[in-house]
Amino acid sequence: MEKILITGGAGYIGSHTAVALVDAGYQPIIVDDFSNAEKSVLDGLQKITGQSIPCYEGDCNDKRLMERIFSENELTGVIHFAAYKAVGESTEHPLNYYRNNIFSLLVVLEIMEIYGVENLVFSSSCTVYGQPDTLPVKESTPRKDAESPYGNTKKICEDILTDHVKSKARLSAIALRYFNPIGAHPSGLIGELPTGVPSNLVPFVTQTGAGIRNELTVFGDDYDTPDGSCVRDYIHVMDLAEAHVKSISYLKNKTAPLYDLFNVGTGKGNTVLEVIRAFEKVSGKDLNYKIGPRRPGDVEKVWADTEKINRELNWQPKYTLEDSLRDSWNWQLALSKNPA
Ligand code: WQD
Questions:
Q1: Please, which domain of life does this record's source organism belong to (predicted)?
Q2: Model ipTM?
Q3: Is 121:79 a contact under the CB 8 Å cutoff?
Q4: Which domains does the chain have, with CATH numbers?
Q5: What angle do CA 17, 25, 33 make, to 5 degrees?
Q6: Which atom of ligand 1 is nearest to 123's Cα?
Q7: Which parts of the chain sit beneath pLDDT 70?
Q8: Would you state the pLDDT for residue 80?
Q9: Does any ligand 1 atom lie closer than 6 A to the CB of residue 91?
Q10: CA 330 to CA 185: how far, in whole Å?
Q11: Would you call 97 a catalytic residue per the annotation?
Q12: Catalytic: which of 97, 150, 234, 250?
C-alpha cells in the first residue's frame, strides 16, 4: 500500500485528509507535535478507518525525527499541513510564524530530496489574494501584499516551491489555496478543535448554539454585499480532503517535474448572515447574535473560481453549505457529550 506522510496530520484538515487517503487505498503516516491537535483525534481516526494510523509525535522542524520517518517508511508523497495558522496571533508573534512555517517546509523539501520522494502537496490559502479586484478569483490573479505574517508565510512558501522545482530538483509539487474550511466528518468522530475562543466564524456559531458562548458578534454589516456582511467561500473539510487525494494522484501520474497551484473552494460565496440562517435551519436553534464593528484586516468578499481544479484534477465539491453546518453542529453536539 502506498504511504503518504501527512505533516500536521492530527490537525483539523490533516485528520480528515487521513480518512480520505485510507478511503482511496493509501496508507497515511502522521507526524504531529500536537501543539494544535488532541491525541483523541487518533482514536476518532481508528473508529472511522478501522486501523490504527501510524503516528510519529514530534515537530517536522526536527531533522533527526524526519530522518527516522523517511528511513522507516518508503513514501510515495508528502502532504505538508504543519504550520501555525492563526491570523491574529501571527501579527503578535511574527518571528514564530516565519521560523515555524518556513523552516518546516525547508526541512521537508530537503529530506524529500535526500530520500528521492518526489511528490508534495502544500497547504496554501486564499489569503494570498487579499481583496481581489475581480471575482470569482482565479489562480492567475496576481497575489497581493499579505494581510498578515501568516498570509506572508504562505506566499513565501509558494515562492520557495516555485524556485525549488525550477532548480531541476526531482520534486513535483501542488499548492492548494484553501478558501474557508468548515464542517466535520459526518460520523461526528473528528472535527475542528479550536483552542480557546474561536476566531473563525463557524466554530463560534456552533459554540454559541451550544451555549458555550453567549452571543456571536457579526463583524460589520455595512459592506458592499447583498446583506452588508462579508462574503466567503465555505468549503466542507471532506471536500477539501478529497482535493488532496486528487492532487496526489495527479502528481503520481505526472510525466515531468511540475509545480502548479489550485483554488479549493465551492465556487460560491455566502455572507455571514446567510451562514447564520443556514445554521438556524439545520440546527433548529435561534442563534443569539448582534451586529458589531468591522474586524480589522477582513477582506470584504472573496470566493473561488474553481474551473481549473474541476478540469485538471477532476474534483468537484459534493457538500452544500447546509451539509457543512449540519456536520459542524453534529460535531459540536458530540464534543459537548464527550469533550476531546
Ligand atoms: C469569516 C467571516 C469575519 C468570526 C481566516 C484566515 C484564513 C483561514 C480561515 C487558516 C469574516 C466573520 C468571524 C466572528 C464574524 N485560516 N466573523 N464573527 O477571516 O475569512 O479566514 O480563517 O488557514 O487564512 O484568513 O475566516 O472564519 O475568521 O471569518 O462576523 O466571530 O466571518 O468577519 O467575514 P477568514 P473567519
A1: Bacteria
A2: 0.97
A3: yes
A4: 3-182+234-265 (3.40.50.720)
A5: 35
A6: 23
A7: none
A8: 98
A9: no
A10: 9
A11: no
A12: 150
Q: Whose CA is nearest to atom 1 of ligand 1?
A: 201
Distance CA 203, CA 162 (A): 34
User: What atom of ligand 1 comes closest to residue 229's alpha carbon?
Assistant: 34
pLDDT tens for each residue of 275-310 = 999 999 999 999 999 999 999 989 999 999 999 999
What per-residue confidence (pLDDT) applies to 168? 78
Rounded CA-CA distance 200/198 in Å is: 5
Residue 167 neighbours by CB distance under 10 Å: 9
Q: How far apart are CA 191 and CA 7, in angstroms?
A: 17
What pLDDT is attached to residue 46? 98
All three cell numbers of 127, joined, read 489569503
Q: Tell me, what's the pLDDT at 229?
A: 98
- Secondary structure in 3-state letters for the chain: CCEEEEECCCCHHHHHHHHHHHHCCCEEEEEECCCCCCCHHHHHHHHHHCCCCCEEECCCCCHHHHHHHHHHCCEEEEEECCCCCCHHHHHHCHHHHHHHHHHHHHHHHHHHHHHCCCEEEEEEEHHHHCCCCCCCECCCCCCCCCCCHHHHHHHHHHHHHHHHHHCCCCCEEEEEEECEEECCCCCCCCCCCCCCCCCCHHHHHHHHHCCCCCCEEEECCCCCCCCCCCEECEEEHHHHHHHHHHHHHHHHCCCCCCEEEEEECCCCCEEHHHHHHHHHHHHCCCCCEEEECCCCCCCCECCECCHHHHHHCCCCCCCCHHHHHHHHHHHHHHHHHCCC
Q: Please report, in angstroms and rounded to a whole number, the separation of the first and last CA atoms in the chain.
A: 31
Cis bond leading into 28, ω under 30°?
no
CA distance 162 to 239: 26
pTM for the full predicted model = 0.97
